Amino acid sequence: MSILDLKSPRPEAPAQHEPPPIRSTAGQDSATSAPPPWYRRGRIQALLSVVALAMLAAAWLIHGWLLSGNVVSLSNLELATVKRGSFVQDVSASGTVIAAVSPTLVATAAGTVHYRVHPGDRVERGQILAEVDSPELENEYQRQLATLKSMNAALEQEQVGLREQLINSQQQANLAAVRMNAQLRDLQRAQAAWRVHVISERRYEAAYDAFSVARLDFENARDDAHLEHQQILLSLRRRTLARDAQALRVAELKARADALTVRSPVTGLVAQTLQPDQSYVAENAPLVRVVDLKALAIRFQVAESLANGIVPGVPADITLGGQTVRGVVTDIAPDVVDGWVTGRAHFKGPAPPGLRQNEQASVRIILGQKNDVLIMDRGAYIDPQTRFAYLVHGTEAFRVPVTFGAASTSQIEILRGLTAGDTVVISNPRALHGARQVRITR
User: Fold this and answer.
1) Strand (E) positions, 118-198?
2) Are 94 and 363 in contact (CB under 8 A)?
3) Given 2.40.30.170, 3.40.220.10, 3.30.720.120, 3.30.1490.20, which CATH number is that of 72-98+295-441?
4) How much of the chain, in percent, has pLDDT values that exceed 90?
5) Band of the pLDDT at 115, cuts 50, 70, 90?
6) Sheet of 396-401: strands edge to edge?
7) What CA–CA distance (Å, rounded) separates 230 from 237?
8) How far apart are CA 437 and CA 232, in angstroms?
9) Which CATH class is domain 135-259?
């Protein structure tokens, strides 16, 4: 049979009714929700929590291990709190009691010294301390004194002779004046007679010539007397100056001879006899040192870094034997010796009784006062040159840059880097090894 012999199917007649559905297993199924992702399951969450806690513990352990080399006990640190208030800038210095007036008396000539006092003796002003026997000075003084007396006698004798010479020259001038006046009267009579032709012209001219000669003699005598008077004055002045020079020489020798008896210039204490008794000493050799107990001062030393601002006139508190008295700085050395600057302070009022030379004292020099500034205790390791500090937060200390201002004995001014209420480490920073962060343990 070929495909052409096949007949087309007949169209189906419309169904009278639907056949019953085929039975399936749909009735045995029930609806359920979608399963959660794996990371939200209970066991996974518990495991992740345990892992997170383990990682945090490991991080904490690693952090503690990293800081284990910068751990410092709180008992080894000294802390200070920053506050705002009044700041008194002062400098503390150690001092020594010295004698502001302590003259050393010397021998004015070579000779043998004889002491009248001993070290430690109290003496009054003008009291004899020692005597120096100097025959050479005594002989020189007597010789120069004799020369002075001789010069005085010579000067007196010359004054008499010059006075006589002056009188003679003045007498000659006076006689010349008398002769000139006599010739003047003769000339006047001759002139009157010549006018009436009683005498000849020749006689009149002779009278006139005689008057002219007398006038010249008077003028010469007068000038000679004046010059001689000047010469006499110059000669007397020269002789007087020579006599005065000799008198000064004698006065000097007398002062040196009087100074051989050594007297105390002050009321005080004999500090030291500088030569053996009954020994021969040279000229200008020191003999004895005397201390004026009413003129004591304090010599102090301060570090070079703290000496800025110390000038004469600033007040100072001087503590001696537990007693504090007021004083004032009188001078400060312009140079630095081994990092120290030396100064001197005097008591404002009377010095405390019973002071001894070389007694130790403490000096507090007050440089000024500021109000409403940030301050803190400075400790022993913080000064104006310090450029950082360790700021404490809880159990950590952080190194922060800080600018400090003026410093006092116990406090220091803060310019930048800290605020009121901050806690700062003021102990030795070497214990922190220069770390940026330090852990503090209790």
Assistant:
1) 122-123, 128-133
2) yes
3) 2.40.30.170
4) 15
5) very high
6) 71-73, 437-441, 396-401, 388-393, 423-425, 79-81
7) 11
8) 103
9) mainly alpha
